[in-house]
Amino acid sequence: MKGEDGRHLNAGPVRLKLANGELRYLRVNGREVLRRVYFAVRDARWDTVPANFESINVRSGAETFTVKLRARCLNEIADVDWNGRIEGRADGSIAFDVEWERRADLEYPRIGICVLYGAEAFAGRDYESMLPDGRRNHQSFPRLISPYQFAKGFNSLQTTTREQVRVTVAVPGAQMDMEDQRNYGDSSYKAFVEGAALRRQRLEIAVDTSSAEVLKEAPPAPPIVIGGPTEARLPRLTRTNRTSAEHEYTHYNRNRADFADAPRIEIPFNPAVHLDDDDTLMENVPAIVDQAATIRSFAPTAALLAGPVLFDSPYPRPRRDPRNGTAFSTAWLARFLKFAAPAGIVEAAIALADGPWTALYEELSALSGRRLLDAGTDPHTGVDVLAVDGHGAWVINNRAATRQVTIRHLHGEQELVLAPYEVVPLSSASG
Fold first, then answer.
1. Domain holding 147: CATH number?
2. What tens digit of pLDDT does each residue of 8-34 get?
3. Which are the contacts of 247, defined by CB distance < 8 A and separation ≥ 6?
4. Range of the domain at 24
5. Taking the alpha carbons of 427, 307, 285, 419 in that order, is the dihedral positive or negative?
6. Quick check: 3 pLDDT over 90?
7. Cis-peptide into 308, omega within 30 deg
8. Of the residues 144, 176, 208, which one is the last residue of a structural domain?
9. Residue 83: its pLDDT value, please?
10. pTM for the complete prediction?
């Protein structure tokens, strides 16, 4: 039993998705307050060992839920059993309890509960962390990518979203550190329980909406408007068989002085370093924008290339990711190019295995250097639009569910129903 996919639950004003034993996209009024909460086992290679669920039992009401989990994380160098209980309450609070046990005496650099804060929602936002001795630290989530962990040894962290929702996470009896996962192609900051020895862990989440306007239902998504030309230009596209790079992103970010005068820098992009489910691979694409902006802060004259660009796991696998051969690959590539262009990437070396994406690749290769039209970048709609000045637009469903969307452009409005991961061309949308 791999896990339950995409069940929606409520904890008071908080709406979220339960998928594969994880809490994803915790939202109030449709706006994200936490990206993800999950339990992770990292093996000696730092690979995240997938959980095989023996049972997932869910009881849910209009404003509460209880989830009981039993899972085994097993591969050739790891074997861990764990039980979890997640309780969502009507006041918007959530408790996540885990108890785990090794089935073999193997090396584990990290085992514990993780909390992801989406970079789009929290970059630059202030937070307060509480240390075990009672001291409080006041800091901000970094806008540019922090090369190292930027918060350590705290047992609670409180922050407020742009919509004035106050979010507090706490780990009684434990401590957490936090790192900037954009270093690794993720679009989030990760708080994680320290070490790999604490067999019982508890995470408490409190969501205070007293200063925010709370609606019973999120407002409907407005039409996506395709506007005028931007400064962003579609990168030149090439194909490559390389699946690894000369330098990982952290090498540039931790050795900034060495690259200050570099004429060109190639950024490898792979969003599957930590997790590799569909949601993760899609949600991480905007990290390329922050990666490029950070490099430009210390290497302002370098031409920025992206490559190799792929979503296969960087850890040993018996074969290439099967999603290369599905509609997912086309939607993922289109979404990547939508963000690579405003990031200032001049060339992208695509390392995906052959699949249906190659048709879109050939079509867009002929448009290298063309300006993009303004088509918004709202991460909550599940739909992206890649619009090229004078050459039409491509509407991208980046979710595994059917989506209905209204596109407004120079020649009027179009209503579309998109199949999972479908990419639909709109030739009439060009400026």
1. 2.70.98.10
2. 999 999 999 999 999 999 999 999 999
3. 266, 268
4. 7-208
5. positive
6. no
7. yes
8. 208
9. 98
10. 0.95
